Amino acid sequence: MYRKVHKENYIGKFLIKLIGIFIVATISIALYDMYLNINIENTPIAGGGTIASTEETKTEKDICDTLENVSNTVVGISKLQSTDSTFFSLGAIETYNLGTGVIVSKEGYVITNYHVSGKKSSKCYVTLEDGKEYTAQVVWTDENLDLSILKISTTREVSYAKLGDSDTLRIGQGVYAIGNPLGAEFQKTVTSGIISALDRTIKIEDEKKSSYMEDLIQTDASINSGNSGGPLIDKEGNVIGITSVKITDAEGIGFAIPVNIIKPIIEKLQETGKFEEPSLGVYVYDKEAIQYINSSLEFEYGVYVTELISEGAAKEAGIRVGDIIEKIDGIKLNKINDLRKHIYTKNIDDEVRLTVLRNKQEFEITAKLTKKM
Fold first, then answer.
1. Cross-strand pairs, 156
2. Distance (Å, rounded) from C-alpha 239 to C-alpha 328?
3. Could you tell me which of 65, 140, 71 has the C-alpha nearest to residue 101?
4. Is 228 annotated as catalytic?
5. Which helix (H) or strand (E) holds 112?
6. How far is Cα 67 from Cα 232, in angstroms, rounded to an integer?
7. Section 133-156 average pLDDT
8. pLDDT at 1 over 50
9. What is the pLDDT of residue 38?
10. Rounded Cα distance, 102 and 215, in Å
């Protein structure tokens, strides 16, 4: 009897020890696996840095895929080098590179800069990602905005980029610029950076006059000659701006025009195939830009009227130089582009309701929009 009990106790103790060893081994393996994962993610690699985790690698791959897709919508834009009749009699067409553009619709509409495309109804030559060149008509331009829209003459389906929402941008947000700096040799160059500032106003001076560009996106993504008209995109690949100008005597300061200003025009072109631009007939500055004109002027919001176009809608309605247009159809105006965007959604002969501040008195005026000349 004694020998049987002793045997059972021995087996029980042995099983307990075995279970304990198993638990300790399991915990040790788990801890060792965690240790390996931590060290793999943070192990230095040649040239500096660390080996990326699976999640980081996936994110990087997604961004690379996005940039590749958007790059396929970026085009080179060129113009005729000569208009001499003798030149054409030779049967040769030579072009020179001017800048960049981005296709933004399946119909083949391309956004670029005014200084790249030239005036409305002129022609450009657009080179797509496959190297094929197409004739494009300039269907809309605005010299003050430095924006224009082209239409490619092709029946083939084209890749196009998606327009984002530039009203939701934040300082510090990561962005990428894609373009053709220094010509076709460096086509589709991608540079990265952040949004450095919003609603910037800069003064542009040339031999003839001084002008101002307002409500710009400032970025430290590298922008060089030839990038003009190319897209500034977010990490999801949405076009949030069109690159335009660069301060040449400073490093890391480039600018893009917010894309929301041109979205209503693209939508109308897609719907009707044309865009007849309505006009309020005023030249205005917002509170950010007016400091360059008259630093003594101060107002909380709205746009300041500096000039009226003869026989324009505003003059006919009774607007005066020095008025502050605070609202249009109840929409509060903080930037000049707020006014432009709303007018672009309207049609010629539509009426708009303006809330005006004059001599500290607020009142409303109704204006009938005219065709921009």
1. none
2. 27
3. 71
4. yes
5. strand 109-112
6. 11
7. 91
8. no
9. 46
10. 21
Residue of higher predicted confidence among 315 and 16 = 315
CA–CA dist 118, 144 (Å, integer): 13
Q: Quote the pLDDT of residue 84.
A: 47
Q: What is the pLDDT of residue 327?
A: 97
Instruction: Choose, from 105, 142, 146, 215, the residue flagged as catalytic.
Output: 146
Q: Is 115 a catalytic residue?
A: yes
Rg, Å, the chain Cα set: 30
Residue count of the chain = 373
pLDDT of residue 117 exceeding 60, the answer is yes
* 367: enclosing H helix or E strand: strand 361-368
Termini Cα distance of the chain = 117
Q: How far from 40 is each of 29, 47, 52, CA to CA, in Å?
A: 16, 16, 8
Q: What string of DSSP letters covers 167-216?
A: GG--TT-EEEEEE-TTSGGGTTEEEEEEEEEEEEEEEEE-SS-EEEEEEE
Q: Which residues pair with 368 in a beta bridge?
A: 351
pLDDT tens digits, 52-108:
455 556 588 888 999 999 999 999 998 865 444 433 333 444 556 578 999 999 999
> Of the residues 115, 167, 199, 350, which is catalytic?
115
Token pair of 363 as six digits: 């009142």
Residue identified by tokens 């409303």 is: 364
- For residue 226, how far is the Cα from the chain centroid? 17
Write down the catalytic residue from 78, 196, 228, 244: 228
CA distances from 157 to 103, 183, 199, 359 (A): 11, 26, 36, 56
Identity of residue 319: I
Nearest to 214 by CA among 255, 247, 249, 163: 255
- Reported as type and span, the H/E element at residue 370 is strand 370-371
Q: How confident is the model at residue 297 (pLDDT cuts 50, 70, 90)?
A: confident
Using alpha carbons, list the distances in angstroms from residue 19 to 16, 22, 164, 364: 5, 5, 60, 86
